[in-house]
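User: structure tokens for Aspartyl/glutamyl-tRNA(Asn/Gln) amidotransferase subunit C, please.
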Amino acid sequence: MSTDLATLRKLAHLSRLELDESKEQKMLGELNKILNWVEQLRELDTTDVEPLVHLSHEINVLRADEAKNTVSHQDGLRNAPRKDSDYFRVPKVLD
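Assistant: Done. Predicted tokens:
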């Protein structure tokens, strides 16, 4: 499988990439190497290979998720640029 320059330019446009001519040739070569590698992978017989769900068998040990206030209400409002008695004041976003 091989990609031509027109396809590369279309992909670059869709990806919002700007490539000059020297970079186009380099990118085209690298893209074709990747596609050739994927084509080699397709040739492998994977009929007896189990799907991989996790990369390792280790289990995460997480702490319990407990809600608690670490910052008081007054401390949270202390550095606010604009505040009302108990709330942050923000610019209006809807008309």
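User: Anything notable?

Assistant: The mean pLDDT is 87.
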